[in-house]
Hints:
By secondary structure, the protein is of the alpha+beta class. It is built from five helices and 19 strands.
Amino acid sequence: MKRCLALIATTLLASVALGQTIYQKTQARPISLGTSGGNVNDATKTFCCSGTLGSLVTRGGVQFILSNNHVLARTNAASPGEAVSQPGLVDSGCNIPASDTVARLSQFIPLGTKNVDAAIAATVSGDVKTTGAILTVGVPSSTIATPTVGRRVAKAGRTTGLTCASIASVNTNVKVQYQIRCGSGKKITEPYTNQLLINSSTFSAGGDSGSLIVTSDTAQPVGLLFAGSSTTTIANPARDVANALGVTFVGGANHSVTCPAAATTQAGRGLSTVELERGTSAKEAHWQDLFQDDAIQGVGVGEDPDNPGNAAVLIYVEEGRAHGAIPTEIDGVKTVVVITDRFRATGWNESTEQRSCSQR
Length: 360
């Protein structure tokens, strides 16, 4: 216990000396979202965990912070009323004063029940901006966008801040690994269908769980980030999250997000309705057979990199694991194999120092 807490303290003291990022430090109240936060009880004897307070939603005239089940509800273990803090435990040496509470857990969707990893916490009056402002994104649009292949997106999260990329695959079925307690306990794998995936080594890392992904040209909610690997980010479609919780997004008019200069790479051409349907039909006909191979952890619909505008079935294979033969095409649709490490809901794409103690 002392060793891990010491590592947290050392890391944080170094961060403070250099200046913690705006996504990690304590904010003056009322706070903007896209910031460090989580359940104040999300700790074990050797670890403490946090994620991102993603966005503001409303239901029945009440405003809530939206994030993941595994950030706000301790992976199905929490009870309504538990405190949610800003910043999270990992950014305060695992010690949260009562004054850091900005919300209280209201509802979570049990993992494996509605195809989302989502939870909401009722805001404490005066502690969260009622406009729904997100750090460096601004007030998001109040209207939800449908994820499409090649669409440019942005997010603000606790660990990697403001990042931009493009959607690589949609209608993607994935297997995601969870750990039932913070940094310890049994590991379980949860299946999800029809998720959106972003192939980028810099778009997210552990601690960004719960971030709202928006379209970069209109700031419309498009996904709720909940897992990833060193090369990939996985998100629940925003519409599925809103429907599961019965909420609407708090926001305003459409506007663009100013992306970092390093994120100005060109997106693909995207898929026409005909090509999307062609790729989806092939994927739906064969994903269950492909998932019989334990090394395959994702199957979705994307764009053929060699023939822009043409659909491809993207097959995500876990790095370092032997796998069976993968066909070069399925029902006339090309397959593209993406090799990556395991899809995880915690601790992905982090440095060795960060892995010393857990982040969501």
